[in-house]
Structures are given as C-alpha cells and as structure tokens.
Design a protein that fits this description.
The complex is a heterotrimer of chains A (160), B (641) and C (261). Chain B is an alpha+beta fold and 641 residues long. Among the domains of chain B are: 45-145, Aldehyde Oxidoreductase, domain 3 (Alpha-Beta Complex); 152-208 and 304-493, Aldehyde oxidase/xanthine dehydrogenase, molybdopterin binding domain (Aldehyde Oxidoreductase, domain 4); 217-300, Aldehyde Oxidoreductase, domain 4. Chain B has helices at 31-36, 71-74, 129-137, 152-155, 188-194, 237-247, 274-285, 295-300, 340-350, 383-400, 404-411, 430-440, 447-450, 461-464, 521-524; strands at residues 51-57, 63-69, 79-83, 113-114, 120-126, 140-145, 181-185, 197-205, 217-222, 228-232, 255-258, 289-292, 308-316, 322-332, 360-367, 469-471, 496-498, 505-506, 552-553. Classes of the chains: A alpha+beta (160), B alpha+beta (641), C alpha+beta (261). Chains in contact: A-B, A-C, B-C. Chain B binds chain C through residues 77, 129-130, 133-134, 136-137, 294, 296, and chain C through 1-2, 34-37, 39.
C-alpha cells in the first residue's frame, strides 16, 4: 500500500508520519498519531464531530485529505487545556451542562474557540452561526450556546 | 442550570428533601472527559493490527438468494476473510429469547432470502476500511426478487407476501391464540350506544431514526485467557453479551464486554447486531476486528422507531366525561420481531392513557413487513399511542365545548383508580402537570380545575371497581390469512362475559436464556429478594438487589417481560434499587358517594402557588471537575498502544 | 486501490485526468466519495499550484477556482456574492469548499453555480479558453479540462438577489434555490434543485425583461410560467410537484421583498 510522508504541527508538537494514499486526516490523527479527540460521526461532512482547526480555522478532518496538511498547524481539543488548567470554554461547558453523551463536544469546543478568537463579543445569532456545522442530538443546543456566551463574557471580565 | 425549576410544593410529603445528592443538581461525572475529549468511546481504544469488517447488503426489499460468489473478493488486496451465513455457529435468534419470549426468527447473516433492504448477506474482513469496501463491491449475489410489502395493514391482507416463515401470518402470535394483543375492560359498545358524542379518528407515525452522532459499532479482540473482549457502544451490555453468546454458541463466561459509554443511543443501540458480528470476526481471524455502521447504514439498516397506525374511537357524555375508548393499533415491526412484541404489550398496558375511562377495548397488532426491523426509541411502545390519545383528547374537548386542559383534568386518573389492565393507579400526577403547564403557558383554567388534585377523588367504589367485561375471540391465529376474519378493531359483538371484580392472573418471572448468566446467589453471598414491607422508610443499603414482585397481569400464559424500557442501559432484574418501602403518605380515604366530578372537596386541596418561584440555584457554586483523590483529568483507561 | 497523484501545475494535472480520476479541490465532495468507497474512481489528482485569488479585471472580476467560500466572504470585490457564500454549508465547509468544486457539484448541491449561471459567468479552463456558464453546465459531465477560474461581472448588491430554500437553518441543503440578476430590460433567472444542473427559466426571464414594474401585477406573468423551462424531479428532499408549487412563491418573495424572505 503506497504511503506518503507528512509532517505537521499538532497542538504545538511536531508530528511526522506516513499516511496511506487517500487517507483522511481524521484517520491519521486518531490511529496514526493517537489523538482520539476528533470523533467520526458521518464521514460526509454533515455532523461536524470531526472538526479540527487548521491554521486556526475550522475544518472537517473527515473530508481533509491527510497529505494536504503538510507543514500546517493543527489544533484539536487535546491541546485546549493547559496541563490541568482547563480552557474557559471547557469550564463553562462543564458547569452549564453543555454536554450529555459528549460525542459532539470536541467539535463544538473548537468551533466556539475559533469564533471567540475572531469575535470576542458575539451575540447569540453569531454563536449559532458558528456552531451551525456541528450537530448535537442530546442537548437541544441551548446549553451549548449559553456556555459559549458565558465563556465570552468571562474572558472579557464581564462575568466570573 | 438556569432551566431547572423545582416544584417542591407538589407531593412534598412523599419526599425526603434532606438528602444530600438526590433532588439536587450536580455536575455530570463524565463531563470532564467530554470537554477534554478523553471520554473513551468504543472506538477510542487502539489495537495493533486492527482489521475492518464490512457487510455486503441486499439492495432488494425481499428476494431469494440464489447464490453468493465471494471468489473475487477473497483475492483482493488486504482481504483476510470473507464470511457468510455458514460461518455463524447458531444463525437464528430473536432478542427477546433472552427472557424466553417469542420465537427465533432472525439470522445474523441472511442465507436463503433477504427480507429488508440493507440486510447483510456476507461480510468482508480486511486490513483497511477501504479495502473492505472495495471487496464488498466485488461480491456477486444472485437474487430472485420477490414481491414486498411495506405497510402494516397491507401485510395483514390474505394475499400479502409472507415475509418471515416463522410468522406466516405476518403478525406476532400472542398467547398462542390470537394474531394481536387484546385488552378488554367493561363494555365499550354498550357505552358507545349511550354516549352523547362518538369521535373516531386515525393517527399514524412514520419510522423515526434515532440518529445519534456516534453510529453503532464494536471492536472485538481475542484475549489471552481464551476470552474475547468487546468494546461496544451498546445501551444494553448484558443483552449484547447474552445475544452474542447464543449466536456464536460460546459460553457467556468467555465474553468480556466493556461499554456503557454511548455517543447517543435513544433506543437505537439496543439491538445487539454489531457485537456478535465483531466477535465473530475476531473468532474467524484471531485478530482485533472493528465492525461499525457508517452514516448511511445507521440511517438505512439501523433499527428505527417503527411506524405505527392507530384508530381511536371515544364515547363522551355531554358533560365531558369519556365513558368509552376503543383503540386499534398497528406496529410495523419490519422484517423481524426483535423487541416489538414487547412494545405492543407495553403499549397495551398504557392504554387508554392517564385517564379514568370505565370501558376500554384495544386490539394491537405486531405486524411484519419488509421494512428495516424496528426497535426502541424514547418511550418505547407508547409514543405513537400517546400522540394519538392526546390529539383525540383535543378533539373530544372541542366536541363538548370544553377548555382542553380542563377536559383533561376532568378525565384524569387519580390515585386509587382502577386502570384498564386491572391495576390500581398510584403516584398519578397528570392533574398537577396540567395545572403547572397551564400556568406556564398563561392558559386560563377555571378555579375549579386549578383546585383539583391527584391525591383526592380517586379510588372511590365506582372508580376502583373492575366492571363486568365483554370478551370476544375474533382474530385467532391464521383466520385472517385464510380470509375468515377481516376486521381488525375490537369485535362489535362479544362472545362472552367475565364477571365483575375478576382480576388479572399473576405470572412469574422468565428464566434467563443463558444458564451460565444466572446469579448463583448462595455461592457468592449475594442477598436477593424483597425487603419486608414493615421496614422503616429509609433508603435501603446500597447493593441490596430486589427481584420485582410478581404482579397481577391481564395476560395469562405469557410471561411479562420484567425489563425496563430500553432507553437507558439495561441491567439484570436483580440489580434494581430497592423500591421505597414506606407506605405512601397520602392514603386517600374518600368520602362515600364521592362522584368523579368537581364537587368541592372537604379537605383543602393543595393551592397552586400564586407567584412563580425563582429557579433553583445551588447553595454553593459548582466545583470544577470531579474531586476524587488522585483523579487526573487525563485518566481514561486504555488510551495508547 | 486508491492512489493520489500530485502535479506541479493545473495544466499537468489536467493532462493526467481520465475517466477513473477525480480532481481534488476542497475535498468536500471527493473525500466524501472516498470515505464511502465510491467505486467509480481510483485516482485522486491534485495540483500544487491552484489559482485562489479574487481580483478585478477589465472584463469583470476573476475568481480563482481554488478560492473557497470563506475567501469570497472575505473579499469586498465580490460582496454581491456574500449572500450566496454565507448560505453554503457551515463555517468549516466554507473554509474548504471551492468555487471550482461547486461548478461540478451534483444535485442537491451547487448553490454558487446557480448564482454564477444567473450572472452569466464565464468559466476559464486550463487551456485558457473561456466558456459561458450555461454551455459549461450542459457539458460538465464530459468535461476533460480543469477549471482555473470564473469571471463574473461586477454587479451591485441591489441588482443581484439569491434565495436558498431549505428546511433546516442555518445550515441545510437546499431543496431549491433561485438567483436573479435584475437589470432593467435584461433579467436573468437561474434555479438550483430544479433539474440535473442549475437551469435558467428563460420564459420567465423574457416576461420580466419586457418592461413592467417589479410589483405584484408586473411580475404575475413571469410567476405563472417560471417553471416552464425547468425539470424538477422527485427526490428525498421534495417531490417535483412540491417544487413546482413553491417555486413561484419563492420567486415572488425574492422579487418583491428585496431578496429578504
């Protein structure tokens, strides 16, 4: 089976490995690197559970040909926390019951993180737009939107 | 936590509000794993040399299999094994055989015919998923297409194609007697004759796919102690273990099932198809094998909540009382029975809904069609009939010119009332739910309706009596297909009468399917059996298992399945938490000649609160994370190679 | 056996294309097919050099085939296309999906292609030739060359309107979409989801172009015949009957409400 060498940065670490021809990024991350945080929900780009950040922007790792990330920077939820210190978003999700089964959560967090980096003070409609590519079958979305808005407020010092 | 409101005023004396955890919001113990991406779903376990298993699936709803040619697939790169029906040691099962209910009707892999679109006819196990897909495309199956039926009532017609020869009438055989489940209570036809309004309507629901974000899947691997380990996202770990043991003819003790982490189930992860398949793959190859559905398979092959059709007929008096309700229901079980026969019984126990109706008759059919086999989803067996009942209630309110909420409160059952399946209602709360909902929606209800209570007015002699009941023997097994019966509704003319006051017959529990899963209580010092009723009203010591007491039931020879609704993880019956042993505090002693109406009660009813209370707020802010000594936010079990 | 071949230029990549190959743009359609084991191709062709700029030219605005929906949304040159790009997929899809890919997107996708058809865009191939959008779409299943860019006219936001009709919002596939370029006396109407490719309803265009106000009475003749040149079919999203029923309703809202539904 032909393989392609790829190197990229994953959550501030250098990764170098060989990927099967035609392999999607999600398989390379999960089974190649062992980062199990992006989840496979549909393999067709409709659920968003596989969302990762490539050069800071949300992409669907199930639809990304692995070798196209050569030399780029990838962020997953695995890199969100700083050791034991959780990111503000992770805390507000926990305290706001913004996850039940947890399968969509990694994708939601990265979509939210990407939003707050570009729009530190989003309104509700902007949050909904930012997570519009991430499906959740458990929570009904409201706790997720609330948690993201609360995280934005906390990061701006408008809430504790 | 902003959306939880505790109505602690309601049924306050039935609760102990001094408990430290119960009744108080708390942080989920698994949410730290969710937000760090570390919750170990079944696919988050890495195995060296993992093989990928995929199924070859029927493109036809109904067809004979003339031949299967796997020779091309076997030669393709990366293919380790191609398997068919003959590789399954015991290729016939039904899920409910776990509790001795029903007949084995479903193969894990089709062999002589396929009965629904997407049914598996062969499997390929290969090094990569892509190779498995390519090889599946190379398997050649020669089908002889048969006529199919996709509607439950069409399946009952005498000339409908026979879908499953185990049930040649396209219905489940109830009690070895009837092709449907009957419920009879009182005399609906006499009541219709004296009713002021008779309302008939039909309701139906299409199949509904649970669509969890995580699809069904399992990874199985040989362990070194002659066992197979299976990581699975089933909602029903012991169902899956028992089913795998039977299909693969392997001792239960050789199966090591690890699960309970479900990426959304909603009832769609109880049918135990992927686990036997994955374990079979591990058995055939001696390697770790993953078998999971992709999104297309989850939609098409994954069991949905089955389609249902209901016809309701209500008889009302002009003052708004429902005096009779007749129901005819059709469950579309799809090509195989799985859990549906139980759903019909659950639904039957549910009718006529949370209302006191002194005459009830229902016929419910469990039909076989060429649709995808159906399963549980959120309120298994009762969702569609409740939809029908509540729409019917609105029609009834309109017919008598009543406020629909007041109409429901008028007809609501109360503690002590006799239900149609001959058990007394207890812990009823429909009235309070209506009152609170009306308040929240600013929907005006009369002061009289606002003053009603579930705790009073029920269980009067009139409401607790089991009436003389008209029965019939229409719809015996085989009559319909032979053209001797065509009506599906409860018979217009009865053929017998059961005396008033006749209770149902108590049934005993069912034996477990796999003797090696039976609890050997004495050997391991495990206490079993119910606590004595006179025990003080405190929570039983944790871990004390209770076998649910046999209860009177309307159905005679068939054992009542003692399993809980499969929308949560199923546990063996011995592990039920002890039921509260205190006698209910309300114990209504109704005044004699208490009509079931809005006569003002002598005792002051609980007054609904005038103003909405503030939403519950915890006394202390939530702690961040699970505080257990030594717990690390990165702990998650087997994670790396 | 799936292979990936990467070429230095689009021209080389175009030369490598066969019946059993697909060109990788953003991957939103090709990788989906790969993931589901699509047996119709076994070679993925990539090009290192791909045009993704958006810039004004003498003939209009040139949009590189490799430009993504997000690139469109970030470019002020094509602000009239923002209303289209913002409705395609979710944020992640918009970072990936390319203009070139959308030209080949099968039903029910291809919202941007519908808009480009209404704008009379020209499609530039790797051999330098430019083809009108309409004939490109008619022959796209036989296309051997690769697309390097599209050229759209510079239109004002008031002249160009687009509506995407979908049940799920904000992100959901369209059961139909309609684009309108409203120049006085020269109207273009293109529809998505009403045929195997985006199609123009030329009879309705003529009715709208023949003078008359954009008011209820003025557009009535066009509404009556707006599906005449279209070929809606039954599919999982909607029946042909439904599409024909609602098309004039949505067109009316598009024309009268300034594009707001």
């Amino acid at each position: 089976m032909a393989k392609t060498p790829i190197t990229f940065t994953l959550n501030d670490s250098e990764v170098a490995l060989f990927a099967d021809h035609g392999a999607a990024l999600i398989d390379v991350l999960r089974r190649g690197v062992g980062d199990l945080t992006p989840k496979q929900g549909c393999a067709q780009g409709t659920c968003g559970a596989c969302t990762v950040l490539i050069d800071g922007k949300p992409h669907l790792s199930c639809l990304t040909l692995a070798e196209t990330v050569e030399g780029r920077r990838i962020d997953t939820v695995g890199g969100l926390a700083n050791g034991r210190d959780l990111d503000v978003l992770q805390t507000t999700f926990m305290e706001g019951f913004a996850a039940q089964c947890g399968f969509c959560t990694a994708g939601m967090l990265l979509a939210a993180k990407s939003l707050l980096e570009r729009v530190p003070n989003p309104d509700r409609a902007e949050v909904i737009e930012a997570i519009s590519g991430n499906l959740c079958r458990c929570t009904g979305y409201e706790p997720i939107v609330d948690a993201i808005l609360l995280a934005a407020a906390k990061m701006q010092g408008r809430a504790v | 936590m902003s959306s939880v409101e505790f109505r602690k005023d309601l049924f306050a004396n039935e609760r102990d509000d001094t408990l430290k955890e119960i009744g108080k919001p708390t942080i989920r113990q698994d949410i730290l794993g969710h937000v760090t991406g570390r919750t170990p779903f079944y696919d988050d376990h890495l195995f060296d040399g993992l093989l990928h298993m995929r199924a070859v699936r029927s493109p036809h709803h109904h067809a004979q299999i003339r031949s299967i040619d796997t020779s091309a697939a076997e030669r393709m790169p990366g293919v380790r094994r191609v398997a068919t029906a003959k590789d399954v040691p015991h290729n016939l099962n039904t899920l409910l055989s776990l509790i001795g209910f029903g007949r084995d009707d479903e193969p894990l892999c089709a062999h002589d015919k396929v009965r629904y679109l997407g049914e598996a006819v062969a499997w390929v196990i290969a090094d990569t998923e892509r190779q498995a897909r390519d090889a599946c495309a190379a398997v050649r199956v020669d089908y002889s297409v048969l006529p199919h039926v996709l509607d439950p009532e069409e399946a009952l017609q005498p000339n409908a194609p026979v879908v499953n020869e185990v049930y040649p009438n396209n219905t489940f055989d109830y009690h070895n007697t009837y092709d449907h489940q009957k419920l009879r209570f009182g005399d609906v036809n006499a009541a219709f004759a004296r009713a002021d309004h008779v309302i008939e309507a039909e309701y139906q629901m299409s199949p509904i796919e649970q669509a969890p974000i995580e699809t069904c899947g399992a990874i199985a691997a040989p362990e070194t102690n002659d066992r197979y380990v299976c990581h699975t996202n089933t909602q029903a770990l012991f169902f899956s273990l028992g089913t795998t043991a039977k299909l693969l003819d392997i001792a239960s003790s050789r199966l090591h099932f690890i699960g309970g982490t479900v990426g959304g189930g909603f009832g769609g992860k109880v049918d135990s198809v992927v686990e036997p398949t994955a374990v079979l793959g591990a058995m055939l190859t001696g390697r770790p094998v993953k078998f999971a559905w992709d999104r297309y398979e989850e939609m098409q092959v994954g069991a949905p909540r089955g389609a249902e059709r209901w016809r309701l007929k209500d008889g009302l008096t002009r003052d708004g009382k429902i005096i009779a309700r007749e129901l005819t229901g059709f469950f579309d079980s799809g090509a195989y029975m799985r859990l549906s026969p139980y759903a019909i019984i659950k639904g039957t126990g549910h009718v006529p809904g949370p209302y006191f109706i002194p005459n009830v008759a229902s016929n419910v059919f469990c039909c076989i069609t060429n649709r995808t086999p159906a399963t549980a989803m959120r309120g298994f067996g009762i969702t569609a009939v409740d939809f029908a009942i509540e729409c019917q209630m609105d029609r009834g309110a309109e017919a008598v010119g009543m406020n629909p909420i007041e109409f429901r409160i008028l007809n609501a059952y109360r503690d002590g009332d006799m239900k149609a399946h001959r058990r007394k209602a207890k812990n009823t709360a429909l009235i309070e739910c209506c009152q609170v909902a009306a308040g929240k929606a600013n929907w005006p209800i009369s002061a009289e309706a606002a003053a009603q209570s579930s705790l009073t007015g029920g269980g009067t002699p009139e409401r607790v009596a089991i009436p003389e009941t008209v029965i019939d023997s229409e719809g015996r097994i085989g009559e319909r297909r032979a053209g001797r019966t065509s009506s599906t509704s409860p018979a217009k003319n009865g053929t017998g009468r059961v005396p008033a006051g006749t209770h149902g017959v108590a049934v005993s529990g069912a034996p477990v399917q796999n003797p090696d899963m039976q609890i050997d209580a004495e050997r391991i010092g495990h206490r079993m059996g119910a606590e004595p009723v006179s025990a003080p009203p405190v929570a039983a010591a944790p871990g004390v298992p209770v076998r649910p007491a046999a209860a009177p039931s309307y159905q005679a020879p068939q054992p009542t399945p003692p399993i809980a609704a499969p929308s949560g993880p199923a546990t063996p019956s011995y592990a039920q938490p002890a039921p509260p042993t205190s006698a209910p505090a309300q114990a209504p002693t109704p005044a004699p000649a208490q009509p079931a109406s809005y006569a003002p009660q002598p005792a002051s009813p609980p007054t609904p609160p005038a103003a909405q209370p503030a939403p519950y707020a915890p006394a202390q802010p939530f702690s961040r994370g699970v505080k257990r000594p030594g717990s690390s936010p990165f702990t998650s079990g087997i994670r790396r190679r | 056996m799936l292979s990936v071949e990467t070429y230095q230029t689009m021209a080389e990549a175009a030369g490598a294309m066969t019946d059993r190959s697909r060109f990788l743009g953003g991957g939103t359609l090709v990788m989906r097919a790969v993931n589901y084991g699509d047996q119709s191709f076994d070679r993925i062709i990539r090009s290192r050099q791909i045009e993704n700029s958006i810039r004004s030219e003498s003939g209009g605005i040139r949009i590189g085939a490799g430009a993504t929906m997000a690139d469109i949304l970030a470019s002020r040159e094509v602000s009239f296309l923002h209303q289209v790009a913002r409705l395609i997929g979710g944020p992640a899809i918009r970072n990936m999906a390319t203009v070139g890919g959308n030209l080949f997107a099968p039903h029910p996708y291809g919202d941007l292609a519908t808009a480009l058809l209404a704008l009379d865009a020209r499609v530039v191939m790797t051999n330098g030739q430019a083809e009108p959008m309409e004939s490109f779409l008619a022959g796209r299943s036989h296309a051997r060359n690769l697309v390097t860019a599209v050229i759209v006219p510079n239109v004002s936001e008031t002249e160009f309107r687009f509506a995407k009709i979908s049940r799920v919002k904000p992100k959901g596939v369209a059961l139909l979409s309609v684009a309108a370029w409203l120049r006085r006396g020269d109207v273009r109407l293109a529809w998505g989801g009403m045929g195997p490719t985006p199609l123009r309803s030329k009879a309705a265009e003529r009715a709208l172009s023949s003078g008359g106000q954009l008011d209820e009475a003025g557009i009535a003749p066009a509404l009556a015949i707006c599906t005449q040149d279209l070929q809606p079919a039954d599919d999982a999203l909607a029946t042909a009957w439904y599409r024909r029923e609602v098309a004039p309703v949505h067109l009316k809202r598009l024309l009268l409400n300034g594009g707001r539904l």
